[in-house]
Amino acid sequence: MPYSIVVLIKQIPDIDQLRTDPNTGEPQMQNLPLRTENLSKNAIEAAVQIKEKYGGKVTGIIFGREQSTASMKEAYAMGVDDGIIVTGYQRSEPSVTARVLAEKIKQVPPHDLIILGNQSADSYTGMLPGRLSRILGIPLVGNAVKIECSSDQVKVTRATEEGNMVVQGKVPLIISVAQEINTPRLPAVLQIMAAGGRKPIRTEAAQNLSYPDVRVISNRAPKSERKRIIYEDMGKAVPEIVKVIKEAMR
Amino acid sequence: MKLFVFSDSPDIMKQMLTYLREKGEITAATTSGDADIGKFGASVLYRLKGNHMPDSVARTVAGLVRKENYDAMFFGSTVLGREVAGFVSEDMGLTSVTEIVDLRFEGNRAVTKRFFLGGKTVLEEESQAKVFTVMPGITDPQEAGSASKEQEVQEEASALSLVEVQPKKAGTVDIEKAQIIVAVGRGLGKKEGLQQIEPFAQKINGVVAGSRPVCLDYQWLTEDRQVGLSGKKVKPKLYIALGISGRSST
């Protein structure tokens, strides 16, 4: 059966390029490029693979900013059919993001599968799948490493700390994916540029966002408590290192 | 203060109970069968009975927290814990602060610390959050003097069915529990370099782990050996890093 799939995509600052101020320890966010979050790419790949195998349609939704068109073009080049960007993202706040996304998901029915990353690489909250499940009233199967579809029944292999759990459920389902599920395809730059020209991207502004009262006291690089001992003399280093190893082995 | 604590992981549960029991009276709930959890200072311990499907655990826990007026709720950060925390936050309309490594209350405000921006910074915040997910290793577990009053709770019906549980394969290592870790990074140069590392690790009773590039990009090691923010959180007595720059990344 063809599946109607919603994939939730997050665009994040490229934290691999992030530097912190050597004096204050504060992150230097200015001019930091944005990129599609890694697990979002796994989510897109999972959705597109299901579409390629069984037919259907993949709708991508981003809660982001004007610049999020770059991530949507990339999603199009990977095989996403339709894209909606909701602008107005201010900061990582799962309660707000969940509400914005849930509202948009409700507007694009019907959806059999809602696929998203399990935890994003910048803020790591991991709250979105559970919150969406509650708002939408759709069961959640999280941290999927394998998705197998058979008409309206979907079997998901879920990786937990204790091992894998194979769980089956009827659509609609929310599935959050782990990085192990697939290797996202890498569309060529030309494909990404062409994708934006071919298909329109719907952009809407989020309405009535109400961010909770959270006050940032500090946001700094953690202080390193390393002793930074450097041995230049091998003869001195070996006994010291052996001592440390023996101590740990006790 | 009246606190509620949930985890499916006996280890994180014992750590959280040890950390929180000085701050208030604790009601705990777990899906774990670990007999010792009742020794760590919770007044009441609910044992959830069932298949532990994410939707039924989430609804069952949401029901438990609604029975009392808790000042704060804590969830161990595991796959299931984050799902349940997201669901409960939304169900109660509460703000959540995630992956905390430190907490103190100032009146009715919580002051928390968590890693942010892929671990490059520590974010200290003050909020009215009442739901928290707790990183593994917040403290070392220590038994309390008294035993919890234990009670079994049948999990609510699930829309999902359990097909199969696949315990961790033999040979998979639990680097989270390892006392000595020899971690390698891409500075190792090539996969064959591991042939020099493995005998050394064995000799010192250590396990071999790897950075994200080594486990995910080059696949020199399996992903159950991945350390770092997107991998396992480890807390060994001795950690030897070889060919890892130490620059924080995901």
Structure description:
The complex is a heterodimer of chains A (250) and B (250). Chain A is an alpha/beta fold. Chain A has a single domain, classed as HUPs (Rossmann fold, 3-Layer(aba) Sandwich), CATH 3.40.50.620. Chain A has helices at 38-54, 69-78, 94-107, 128-136, 189-198, 234-249, and strands at 3-9, 11-13, 34-36, 56-64, 82-87, 113-117, 140-150, 153-160, 163-170, 173-177, 201-205, 214-220. In chain A, helix 2 (69-78) crosses helix 5 and helix 3 (94-107) packs across helix 4 (128-136). The longest helix of chain A is centred in the first third of the chain and has 17 residues, at 38-54. Chain B has 2 domains: 2-154, HUPs (Rossmann fold, 3-Layer(aba) Sandwich); 180-242, TPP-binding domain (Rossmann fold, 3-Layer(aba) Sandwich). In chain B, 22% of the residues lie in helices and 32% in strands. Chains A and B meet through helix 3, helix 4, strand 7, strand 8 and strand 9 of A and helix 2, helix 3, strand 5, strand 6 and strand 7 of B.
Short description, anyone?
The complex is a heterodimer of chains A (250) and B (250). Helices cover 30% and strands 31% of the residues of chain A.
Task: Predict the CATH topology of the largest domain in chain B.
Answer: Rossmann fold
Tell me the β content of chain A.
Answer: 25-35%
How many domains make up the 3D coordinates of chain B? 2
Strand-residue proportion of chain B: 25-35%
Strand segment count of chain A: 12
State Rg of chain B: 20 Å
Low-confidence stretches of chain B: none
- H-E order of chain B: EHEEHEHEEEEEEEHEHE
CATH superfamily of the largest domain in chain B: HUPs
Percentage of residues in helical conformation of chain A: 25-40%
Major sheet strand order of chain A:
9-8-7-10-6-1-4-5-11
> Which chains have the largest interface?
A-B, 67 and 65 residues
CATH topology of chain A: Rossmann fold
Count every beta strand of chain B, where a strand is a DSSP E run of 2 or more residues.
13
The number of helical runs of chain B is 5
- As residue ranges, the low-confidence spans of chain A are none
At the fourth level of CATH, the homologous superfamily of chain A is HUPs
